[in-house]
Amino acid sequence: MTDKARQGRLNRQRGNAFERETAKKHGGRRTGMFGGPDDVTVDGLFKIQTKVGTMFSNKYWGWLQKIEVKAGEVPYLVIGDAPGAGVQRRVMVIMDERDWLEIKEKLYGSTTEGEAGQG
Question: What is the pTM (predicted TM-score) of this model?
């Protein structure tokens, strides 16, 4: 097996493992193996696209970690682009997954590992 083929196989395994981990944590089921735009579905609530590895932004993570919060507050980062006149701005919200899971539990109830999809 060539180095490229081996690397591709390892990347796919890492991606599949991350999909399983995400489905378990978020109480969803894996859908990524069907080739659609989402990797995990939490029925009636969320569609999740997962990325693992080189897509992680240490810059964003650093900014998020620098936000000082008091008890009960949740830090999150709002990132927008500057597209120019006449073009709608794209905006995304970034937060620590642990904080998101706490908020999700408060809003939608507990998600246990037993509820997660088998995937």
Answer: 0.80
Identify whether the C-beta of residue 41 lies closer than 8 Å to the C-beta of residue 49.
no
Q: Is the pLDDT of residue 10 over 50?
A: yes
What residue spans define the domains of the chain? 1-54, 57-110
Taking the C-alpha atoms of residue 22 and residue 116, their distance in angstroms, rounded to an integer, is: 9
How far, in Å, are 10, 28, 54, 94, 100 from residue 112 at the CA level? 29, 10, 29, 23, 15
- Dihedral angle, C-alpha 69, 102, 63, 80, nearest 10 °: -110
Can you read off the two tokens belonging to residue 64? 């998020």
CA–CA gap between residue 118 and residue 91 (Å, rounded): 33
